[in-house]
Amino acid sequence: MEMGDLLSNKLDALRKKISGFESALIAFSGGVDSTFLLMLAQQELGDRVLAVTMDTILIPRRELQDAEEIAKNLRVRHLIISADPLELPLVRANSSERCYHCKHNLFKVLCSLAREGGYNAVFDGTNQDDESDYRPGMRAIRELGVQSPLQDVRITKDEIRQLSRAAGLSTWNKSAAACLASRIPYGEQITPKKLKMIEEAEGYLLSLGCSTVRVRHHQGMARIETAMKDFTVILKQHTEITRYLQELGFLYVTLDLMGYRRGSLNQLL
Predict the structure, then answer these.
(1) pLDDT of the chain along its 269 residues, tens only?
(2) Which among 11, 65, 191, 246 would be 20 to 30 A from 45, CA to CA?
(3) Total count of domains within the chain
(4) Residue 197: closest CA among 242, 265, 245, 243
(5) Same domain, 110 and 240
(6) What is the DSSP string of 141-158?
(7) pTM assigned to the model
(8) 127 plus 205 within the same structural domain
(9) Coil, strand, or helix at residue 221?
(10) What is the side-by-side strand order in the sheet with 77-82?
């Protein structure tokens, strides 16, 4: 796949940025951005790269499995570290600053691990598009000195997908993912039960053929956001879907006619 001069220049700048560090620990989720970043870091720094995935209750099991498989295919050293952000009262309470407190806690662990292992930097996969959404977690990683090479060279999500496809990465067309807590409106307490309901509901809808899906949990009501092209999937199987989600514990099951949009709960702020 051919790329324009601007994108080629961004890729060159990204490689130069990464190679400016002797070694790096990558915060690796297995998503589009962190997979592309990990691939380039491995190319530029070789065996001086360590991928670390945080295993928390906020991450769907399918995403954790993807991360394991991708790291294995890239032949990069990979650690999985367990953590429980719900131990933090400020995360459980789910204020508008939840992401800040969660990210600060998790990335403190990564920064400590990097120091202990002699890695010169911690990289994360924040990209240019992330600046357009409400992301208090970005403030936390800046405070800790975490590097965001993709954002530094102003590379967008679409450009990362294009470059990933050209590189043969299976993640080039992977649906965007976000932590499960982002499905619960600010001010409503986060509990393991709610997170499990959301994860199982989304997994079920994905198994039916939905390409992208979010099940927002509103005090017992499931508000399904999915791509508009997938509305027919939902409507054809609405009886089975309603029954399944109610068995999970939802009282009401609704389809949001506006479809999937990133960070829709941030509209409440």
Answers:
(1) 456 888 999 999 999 999 999 999 999 999 999 999 999 999 999 999 999 999 999 999 999 999 999 999 999 999 999 999 999 999 999 999 999 999 999 999 999 999 999 999 999 999 998 876 677 888 999 999 999 999 999 999 999 999 999 999 999 999 888 899 999 999 999 999 999 999 999 999 999 999 899 999 999 999 999 999 999 999 999 999 999 999 999 999 999 999 998 777 776 65
(2) 65
(3) 2
(4) 245
(5) no
(6) HHHTT-B-HHHHTT--HH
(7) 0.91
(8) no
(9) strand
(10) 77-82, 49-55, 24-27, 122-123
CATH number of domain containing 186: 3.30.70.2210
| DSSP 8-state assignment for residue 251 | S
Query: What is the C-alpha separation between 49 and 29, in angstroms, rounded?
Result: 15
| Domain stop point among 152, 173, 194 | 173
Q: What are phi and psi of 214, to 5 degrees?
A: -130, 135
Q: Answer yes or no: do 71 and 152 share one domain.
A: yes
Same domain, 53 and 22: yes
Looking at 143, 158, 173, which one is the last position of a domain?
173
How far from the centroid of its chain's Cα atoms is residue 118's Cα? 26
Q: Give CA–CA dist 218/10, Å, rounded.
A: 41
Q: Assess whether 153 and 86 both reside in one domain.
A: yes
Range of the domain at 201: 180-268
Burial class of 22 by CB neighbour count within 10 A (0 to 12, 13 to 18, 19+): exposed
